[in-house]
Design a protein that fits this description.
The longest helix is centred in the N-terminal third of the chain and has 22 residues. By secondary structure, the chain is an alpha/beta fold. α1 packs across α4, α3 packs across α9 and α5 runs parallel beside α6. The protein is globular and about 50 Å long. About 45% of the residues lie in helices and about 10% in strands. The protein contains ten helices and seven strands. β4 and β5 form a beta hairpin. The two termini are about 15 Å apart. A five-stranded parallel beta sheet has the order 1-2-3-7-6, sandwiched between helices. The chain has a two-stranded antiparallel ribbon with strand order 4-5. The protein has a single domain, classed as Thiamin diphosphate (ThDP)-binding fold, Pyr/PP domains (Rossmann fold, 3-Layer(aba) Sandwich), CATH 3.40.50.
Length: about 280
């Protein structure tokens, strides 16, 4: 996909996120919206995947370590063709394959069930080791929240990845600087994030704007070209990105828009899409 096409697709992914959370009347829109661009880039450009064959053996793997942001993953999967976009409003409904946290047994395209913060990266490291031991060429990507990396298990996994020199592993940190209780640097500061990953023998790429497709493209190109060590992409993002009244508002970490707010959010995203079409 071209960069303009990716930007337009990211808006559709955001629409899906808002629609899903509104349909569920619960969920986590803020961190899902901040990750919409990287999810779009991964599923529409970066990863070797096939929606018609979700379990193909040589596919790249993705683990959503911050599993509460499942709406972002589900919207990317739906827009990529793993299941109908029309299913998104069934998020968290009884009998739906789209539960509040990713479930690999229920949802096409989900490679690992997640939700307990800190644990997804460990699964991703295990996958990367498996590929290495089997001499397979597929890559593993995992997305973490900046609040999530306050969990100690994250750093045990990072230590293992660095020690094993897993250059088939790409760890992405969504640094939107907000978690459920407030700014991360006021709750339990993980900064400096880049220096911590460097200390665990990662190649670190700092992305000044993780909501910018050009910067994401450059970062993932550099990650693919890095040999002999795992890569950590630390990307600064805006929580609630794309919906004006949600941006940088900690209150939108874990609540759903009502009908009026839903309409306002969708209007914001429609205007953004129209602006891209005029460029």
């Amino acid at each position: 996909m071209t960069i303009p096409e990716l930007k337009k697709t990211a808006i559709e992914v955001r629409k899906g996120i808002v629609t899903a959370v509104h349909g569920a009347k619960s969920g986590h829109p803020g961190g899902s919206l901040s990750a919409a661009d990287v999810m779009t880039y991964l599923y529409f450009e970066e990863m070797n995947i096939d929606p018609k064959n979700p379990q193909k053996p040589d596919r790249d793997r993705f683990v959503l370590s911050k599993g509460h942001c499942a709406p972002a993953l589900y919207s990317a999967l739906a827009n990529r063709g793993y299941f109908p976009v029309e299913d998104l409003p069934t998020l968290r409904h009884v009998g739906s394959c789209l539960q509040g946290h990713p479930c690999m047994q229920e949802t096409p395209g989900v490679d690992m069930s997640t939700g307990s913060l800190g644990q997804g990266i460990s699964a991703a490291v295990g996958m990367a080791i498996s590929a290495e031991l089997s001499n397979e060429s597929w890559r593993v990507y995992t997305l973490l929240g900046d609040g999530e990396i306050e969990e100690g298990q994250v750093w045990e996994a990072a230590m293992t990845a660095g020690f094993r020199k897993l250059d088939n592993l790409c760890v992405i940190v969504d640094n939107n600087n907000l978690q459920i209780d407030g700014p991360v640097d006021e709750v339990c500061s993980p900064y400096p994030i880049d220096k911590k990953f460097e200390a665990f023998n990662f190649h670190v790429i700092n992305v000044a704007d993780g909501n910018d497709m050009e910067q994401l493209a450059a970062a993932f190109k550099e990650a693919r070209e890095t040999k002999g060590m795992p890569t950590a992409i630390i990307m600064k993002t805006v929580k609630g990105k794309g919906v004006s009244f949600m941006e940088n508002q900690v209150g939108w970490h874990g609540k759903a828009p009502n009908d009026e707010q839903y309409q306002a959010a969708m209007e914001d995203l429609k205007k953004a899409g129209d602006a891209l079409c005029q460029m």
